[in-house]
Amino acid sequence: MAMWIGDRISVEDNQELTTIVINPLRVKWKEILLMCWVAGFTFVGLFMIYLLATGFSSLNFKIPPTQEDLDSLVIYGIVFLGFWLYFEYKTVKSLMWYRYGKELLKIDNEGLWVKKSILTYGKSTRYFFENIKEFHQRKHEQTSFGNFFENAFWALGIDALEFKYQRKTISLGRRLDEKSARLLLRLIDDRVKKRLKSGR
After folding, report:
1. Which has the closest alpha carbon to 2: 186, 187, 175, 171?
2. In 3-state terms, what secondary structure has residue 115?
3. Is 158 helix (H, G, I), strand (E, B) or coil?
4. pLDDT in tens, 32-76
5. Which residues contact 174 (CB under 8 A, 6 or more apart)?
6. What SS3 class is residue 50?
């Protein structure tokens, strides 16, 4: 039977492994607003692509534009599409994450498996205990612009826990509050110690 930490983290133990599932933070009205924003933003981007493909000939100009004006419009359109593609990717990915995403952690006798998936898509990576260093709760500066930007609802959000693994920094626990992150860190530490003892 699964045990819960808060309303987003479920934990299930058996002889072979411990399975932890972290569900995304879901706020229905924000999801609806994000869906509407994505739909409108997608329409604007596709319309701009259509205008660029037709050379802006579908626009009815009262005064015929010069070639220089058309060249300026094309440059503007290309720059706009660069920004559009970036934010389109970020927002669509975030929307899919809120609707269908989850973090899956598995602890066996040798290591920790981490998988961040949307539907069934996502790579599962194994981290062996002997190479995991400095597993801790991240501290975020509430007043920093980067923290505010990454935790905006249209972004995926910042992970709450991290550790060092062979000169890389691995993070998990997306958008967890401080209390849930602290409890999850304790639980992982406890299960790792138990698995290490049972594996000897």
Report:
1. 187
2. strand
3. coil
4. 999 999 999 999 999 999 988 887 777 777 777 788 888 888 899
5. 22, 24, 25, 103, 116, 156, 157, 158, 159, 160
6. helix
Buried b (16+ CB within 10 A) or exposed e, 58-76: eeeeeeeeeeeeeeebeee
Q: Whole-model pTM? A: 0.82
Q: pLDDT of 3-40, one tens digit each?
A: 999 899 999 998 889 999 999 988 899 999 999 999 99
Strand positions, DSSP E, 23-140: 101-107, 111-118, 124-128, 132-137
Structure tokens at 6: 């808060």
From residue 29, how far is each of 14, 26, 33, 162, 198 by CA, in Å? 37, 9, 6, 30, 46
Note the pLDDT tens digit of each residue in 151-200. 777 788 889 999 999 989 999 999 999 999 999 999 999 999 888 877 65
Answer yes or no: are the C-beta atoms of 49 and 35 closer than 8 Å. Answer: no
Task: Count other Cβ atoms within 10 Å, centred on residue 16.
Answer: 10
